[in-house]
Amino acid sequence: MSSAQIRALEEASNGGPLDIKVENTWKPVECPHAAKRLDFVTFHYKGFLEDGKKFDQTYGREPIRIQLGVGMIMAGLDKGLRGMCDTELRKIQVPYRLSRKNKCKVWKNIPNDEHWLTFNIEMLTVEEWSLNKQFTFMDINNDTYLTQNELVKFTEKMRKEFGKTWSNEDIDNVMAAKYYIKYFDINGDAKIVYEEFSKVMERDMAAMESAKALRTKSKTKQNGRKRDPNVAWILDFNNDGIVSMEEIEAADTIIQNEPSIKPIFSKDEL
Ligand SMILES: [Ca+2]
Ligand SMILES: [Ca+2]
What we know:
Layout: H1 3-14, E1 21-26, E2 40-48, E3 54-57, E4 64-67, H2 75-80, E5 89-95, E6 116-127, H3 131-138, E7 145-146, H4 148-162, H5 173-184, E8 192-193, H6 194-218, E9 225-226, E10 242-243, H7 245-254
Antiparallel strand pairs: 1-5, 2-3, 2-4, 2-6, 5-6, 7-8, 9-10
């Protein structure tokens, strides 16, 4: 029997697509902040094949630091790491369906064809998301501002190291970075400092809250993905917090033009 046939049988007996299995092996008494989407988490893992053989571990090298919910890790682990606390130990089993990832540096030792993968996770730190942490994450050379060139490098780094890609492959990294600068650069000096970044992000997040309230009131289902706070922030062209299929499909064309929402604020807002 092929592995695809085994999977089909297992899904049939499961009554639907297989999900991850989580065992809480150890939880600290104190948990000041449980990991949720957008938080930055730093962890070690040991990975095992279905026959129990260890295929990899991060012990002995740098632990892994990723942001949750933005495509930096296989879907099964992204889900399984949610709710973890500093120092917590968890065993997460990930089915084939949720272990897909692009070829990249950080995940290169993880086999791509295994039916089930088991990860023993040791959570080191959970850092709660903030605008400041987000800005620092993108400021890869740590000089307190973001430039077009740096944003291109950041996007490249996300792809090479973590296998994160644009959902529309026609999007060009340089065009996206250019658009991003125009979207955030309040004083027009081609650099984004934290004050500009936070000002524009806060404006957008307020707009997203209103859109969300409106959706709740009219019981409209959100149709698309949650907005990514990294360079892909620009893909939510109508500022409603949801990146729809239409927005993704039109993105490569839209970003060739000036942003329709300008980084301009009235006197009251500044
Ligand atoms: Ca910088
Ligand atoms: Ca949208």
